[in-house]
């Protein structure tokens, strides 16, 4: 028997519901109006319909008859990114599955999909976060045609899933299901990859050795296998009930992957107004679903990027969720999964040990998740505590049972850590996030003189010159949304890790981002207010004593900043298309609000 809902979950959920009362009602009113006004395709003019049906070929007669649902496919396919390469042939298969259900499917549109792994440390990274807004806008363009009764959202990686959801929620009168592509099979052990990276940072490994190591890890179609933002996305879609249950971590090209894709198509036809079980997206994504997503993030040690994405996704549904909510939940939700970079095994090992089925089952049994959320699954959220498989040729779901590897998964009664490892720290330097789940508790408090930088390359140069061989808080500022698009600063991790391994007390403070791949070095990230425009970080000087403490929730300096002039704002950079995103930088709101230009300017 499940325990009653945890008191902290109840309190935070109630707080979010009350805080969001007006904005949520305005959102629900919006999607009701949209559903009423967009109505049936039969009300659309014949000329409009002819344009939409012209290329439908064998599906044309079904579309003209209006009998079956027409499903819009929004795809993030490209074949440069391993995670999205499998989507290349999805449309033709999804159309076949739709015909089996008496429905039709059309590719409604495509979104860009860029990769933080490819742009890491490059100027293209300054477009990355705002690509989420572009993806949301692209999704809206795709769904703006009054042709669809439902939609399938094909996306996996960092900004793609949040962007798809943010755009799709503006069409929340339609039922929708996310269709994941699945992770690539496991490559070389993650610890070996990390070892070679640090050797290269110290000049003890060649570039050829580094490239060979990296390609041994990222080696075939599918999502990267570490538990970064991409796989955290997939976990959160499970926790929100937006996937066919437990479909997140099934490898591409397998029989089971195809069976789950088929089930997604058949199921979404049942969720339409033409089916028997109407479940619009805007009602599936409610306050409880957002809380479940946050709980999953904490219980599995997921990506810090979601401290930005989760408030933005919530806001697109009229829900106001902030870092206080995330921090309070972190104090109540134990860490029950250890996936690299928090542990040694990757998402394939995680899935094989019980994966999301085990996590959901434990959280439900302990009153640490809302079991009464509306999901896309027939049986509700309890279905997500089961794992898919075959009985003969039939797709079935079975109970997961105990974890298969206690180095990967543990019950709530015996967790890896008693909190979720995502803490809010604040003080006279602002508010920031500190991910404790991968950091040794002895390093949760760092107090040392700071060294201030304005870009990653300057940190690398100082490291190479031996200038950081001491106790130091490395401050990298003017990396916020309005300054340069808030790039991810993962390129700093190897050098700072080397300093820490040399016995120095080291921490990072930045208004930039770090990903789910950030690891053992204590870091105060996503600092807000950002340095641009006179934020506290702009007033720090080399040598100021800075204290970063996850135990007490402190981010402060002993220096008196009140009478100092801020460092001058840097001029915006151009090239790599960065100048095209000037409007987005100018309009962006703060990291805690979601760092979105679209949501800030749209009044949401």
Automatic annotation (TrEMBL):
Q: Which UniProt keywords apply?
A: 4Fe-4S, Carbohydrate metabolism, Gluconate utilization, Iron, Iron-sulfur, Lyase, Metal-binding
Positions of [4Fe-4S] cluster binding: 157, 224
Q: What is this protein called?
A: Phosphogluconate dehydratase
Annotated function:
Catalyzes the dehydration of 6-phospho-D-gluconate to 2-dehydro-3-deoxy-6-phospho-D-gluconate.
* One Gene Ontology term of the molecular function aspect: phosphogluconate dehydratase activity
Residue spans making up a coiled coil are: none
* Record note on cofactor: Binds 1 [4Fe-4S] cluster.
> Catalyses which reaction?
6-phospho-D-gluconate = 2-dehydro-3-deoxy-6-phospho-D-gluconate + H2O
- Phylogenetic classification of the source organism: Bacteria, Pseudomonadati, Pseudomonadota, Alphaproteobacteria, Sphingomonadales
Please give the GO cellular component terms listed in this UniProt entry: cytosol
Source domain of life: Bacteria
| Ranges where the Dihydroxy-acid/6-phosphogluconate dehydratase N-terminal domain occurs | 70-379
Q: Which cofactor does it need?
A: [4Fe-4S] cluster
PROSITE patterns named among the record's database cross-references: ILVD_EDD_1, ILVD_EDD_2
Q: One GO biological process from the UniProt record?
A: D-gluconate metabolic process
PANTHER family (UniProt xref): D-XYLONATE DEHYDRATASE, PHOSPHOGLUCONATE DEHYDRATASE
Q: Which gene encodes it?
A: edd
Q: Its Enzyme Commission number?
A: 4.2.1.12
Q: Which residues form the Dihydroxy-acid/6-phosphogluconate dehydratase C-terminal domain?
A: 408-595
- List the SUPFAM superfamilies hit by this protein, alphabetically: IlvD/EDD N-terminal domain-like, LeuD/IlvD-like
Annotated family: Belongs to the IlvD/Edd family.
Q: Where is this region: Disordered?
A: 557-578
Q: According to its UniProt record, in which pathway does this protein act?
A: Carbohydrate metabolism; Entner-Doudoroff pathway
